Fold this sequence. Notes:
This protein has ten helices and 16 strands. By secondary structure, the protein is of the alpha/beta class. A nine-stranded mixed sheet has the order 11-10-9-8-12-6-13-16-15, sandwiched between helices. The chain has a five-stranded mixed sheet with strand order 2-1-3-4-5, with helices on both faces. Strands 7-14 form a two-stranded antiparallel ribbon. The chain is elongated, with a radius of gyration of 23 Å. The model has no long low-confidence stretch (mean pLDDT 94).
Amino acid sequence: MNIHEKYIKRCIQLAKNGLGKTYPNPLVGSVIVLDDVIIGEGWHQKAGEPHAEVYAINSVKDKSQLKNATIYVSLEPCSHFGNTPPCSNLIVANGIKNVVIGTIDSNSIVSGRGVEYLKSNCCNLIVGVLEDQCLALNKRFFTFHTKKRPFIFLKWAETADGFIDKKRDKNSENLPNWISNSFSQQLVHKMRASEQAILVGTTTALNDNPTLNVRSWIGNNPARVVIDKTLKIPENYNLLNGKELTIVLTERLSKNSTNLLFEVIDFKKNVPVQICKVLYKYEVQSVIIEGGAKTLQSFIDENLWDEAFVFVGNTFFENGLKSPKIKKAPIEIQKISTDTLKIYKS
């Protein structure tokens, strides 16, 4: 690892502190180095607040050191006025001549413009250090801006004998049939706190009456998305309580209310593609598809997903609703106490 990789890696570490808090902005970290010593660092903490470069520059006590220092940043410094002034201008204004960048910003309002501004002001630039890692850091942001859809996570729990739920009848309770252990459930809530939205189908909403919020972790609740073609879900169910922004995908027109939005789609056409278009409209950069089996399989069959997390519990149902099927091998397998977590990439 060379010296530039060393400090871009630190930028990536810092940037991850903002996961789940910076939407719609990307995750960015920055460090300022003089004679192989970090004299300042920072990360973007929340949309509307200062960017990583601002925190890094402001943390340097002796600003006279900046003219001889190198600023490292995981993503190209912005060059436009938004909620905050351009970071590329700030770098130049502080006399920083050496700039090392992880990757170019894919957002059309930034892409390449920050680099050009720095070059035109006689900065010495190195671009593309640990680029793959910097791209992976902002996989949600880049997918949203390049593919015009959210980054899609699939997630479900299945029994050791391959079932996602027990058989249900009219006498069954509207509660989940838990499969995974408490450690896996905590990890799921950590995932929820990191992503912008979470989606379930009608059957899951009716059978489990889920809240789809963050309980076993600290963080923001995701927006909730539910497929309800004919508006079957009772008004007193958790998903319709108005406590969190909820988008209902339906074929029937209905009046919006506080935190409850209805979007009409055509169920005779490609539903996963239409869902992505609706989420893109609401600037949702990431979504977890949590169920049920039919909804999950529809995204798999359309090859419209990016990563999948399958928790295999140490339980047996013997019969019930079969779990979805991904026709490829997992890229990683982890043990979570009595559970096995299989991770897939599209």
